[in-house]
Specification:
mainly alpha; Lysozyme; two-stranded antiparallel sheet; about 60% helix; about 0% strand; globular
């Protein structure tokens, strides 16, 4: 969670500047405009023209110099919150990096960005639960469609409706050089075969990853996310991934800081999906000691 911004720093600095360098706010009655009365003994002045800032100014100064550490210390430690599920997700990323990196490099997508978008889903994924869901709902979806069974599938917890939207828009963002292409509904004999192909895609982790690549490309085209700074781009795309690619910019932005993400079958405390993504993203960059650039992704070491 980001507790402050550049604007907040600026406003804090103005408060400190005014508190330190402006004359003491002591009306004739000897009290400040906010009702603070300096104690007897001359707290307002040390000696010949040497001013001491007020308690309010001093407090603001302490807040100002402590902001960087405050934003880190008060950010939720998701690695501890999610425990073994977090470790499981880390293991998946490490074991699959060798084939994920080349796919992303070929499509000019920063590796930390793409993995951060799906990392909360890696934390939430349960092989046992996923198998049960697919077994029970696959037939219902193939025969009735996503209005009757729109369930999360696979390591990246993608839904059939999500895959359908990616397929429909992928032709406008994926070049032949990308090595990624999807068949459209018209390429199948009937709608049942089309739905069956989607489920089969989502049951394969590498094919799911192709959907992720296409999804990020769609976000870059529809929302110009590739023109955003690293943090803004990540939080926007992560929210769109969790909330819906079919939403408009304003709808996605309103959801960025909402807390709807949890990892359990039964309702527990909710967290912000984009914050979890950003937490892993920062840890990954810290581990590699990669600087975050204003635009265009992270620089190589």
């Amino acid at each position: 969670m980001q507790l402050c911004s550049i604007r907040y720093h600026s406003d804090t600095f103005k408060l400190i500047f005014i508190s330190i360098f402006s004359p003491p706010c002591l009306p004739k009655g000897g009290s400040c405009s906010d009702g603070f009365k300096p104690p007897s003994g001359g707290l307002g002045v040390l000696g010949s023209g040497v001013k001491i800032f007020s308690i309010r100014g001093f407090s603001a100064f302490l807040i100002f110099i402590g902001l960087p550490s405050l934003s880190i210390s008060q950010s939720p430690n998701y690695s501890e919150i999610f425990g073994d599920d977090w470790k499981k997700a880390l293991l998946f990323e490490t074991e699959n990096r060798s084939w994920m990196e080349p796919v992303l490099a070929k499509n000019h997508i920063p590796y930390p960005l793409a993995v951060a978008v799906i990392f909360p889903e890696l934390v939430r994924y349960s092989a046992l639960r996923d198998k049960m869901e697919v077994t029970l709902l696959k037939a219902l979806y193939i025969n009735m469609g996503d209005n009757y069974a729109n369930f999360s599938v696979g390591q990246f917890q993608m839904k059939p409706s999500f895959a359908m939207m990616v397929r429909e828009q992928s032709h406008s963002v994926m070049s032949r050089r990308s090595g990624i292409s999807f068949k459209q509904e018209a390429d199948y004999e009937d709608v049942f075969e089309y739905r069956k192909s989607i489920v089969e895609d989502l049951e394969d982790t590498k094919t799911q990853f192709n959907y992720l690549v296409a999804f990020i490309k769609i976000c870059d085209k529809n929302f110009r996310t590739n023109r955003m700074d690293d943090t803004t781009r990540l939080k926007f795309i992560a929210t769109a991934y969790n909330f819906g690619i079919n939403k408009n910019t304003a709808e996605i932005e309103r959801m960025i800081n909402k807390k709807f993400f949890n990892t359990k079958l039964f309702k527990t405390e909710n967290y912000c999906y984009a914050d979890v993504s950003l937490y892993w993203y920062k840890l990954y960059n810290l581990k590699l000691k990669l600087p975050i650039t204003p635009k265009g992704g992270t620089k190589p070491p």
